[in-house]
Amino acid sequence: MTDILINNCKVVPAVIPSAGAVNPLTAVVVDGTGFSRAMFIINTGAAAAGAKLNAKIQKSATSGGALADITGAALTEVLAATGASKSYVIDVAIDPAKPFMEVTGAVTVDTFANSVTCVLYNGTGWRPVSAPASEVVKTQ
User: What is the CA angle 113-66-120, rounded to 5?
Assistant: First the structure.
């Protein structure tokens, strides 16, 4: 029997996709309850000359609660000249006492298109409900 990777993961938005105006990132709270790992995939797009992007992952015991940095979960500042139209990954262990995570960071200097998706994995007794075909595409 072939096991399909997405059957063992939960994919959720972590930052709303943006054309990247100079602003803080628009984070979406990620609830990692029931999983032991989270992989944040940071995608960049077009960037104006001199633009910069900073991001780090923080955790909390509750949704909307006080955030604390996750040690080692920070993206080295991405510069437009070398970091446009690339993907970066920050993979972290989920603290069961603080399973709520947010990406905090900002676009500075000038516009830098960006988005962040989180893949939750290594779940305990978790399997996704059936998703509409438009959300998950499986091939044999």
Answer: 55
Report all structural domains of the chain as residue ranges with CATH numbers, in order of start.
Answer: 5-123 (2.60.120.1110)
Confidence class for position 128, pLDDT limits 50, 70, 90: low
Summarised one tens digit per residue, pLDDT across range 72-119 is 999 999 999 999 999 999 999 999 999 999 999 999 999 999 999 999
User: What is the signed CA dihedral for 89, 28, 26, 76, rounded to 10 degrees?
Assistant: -20
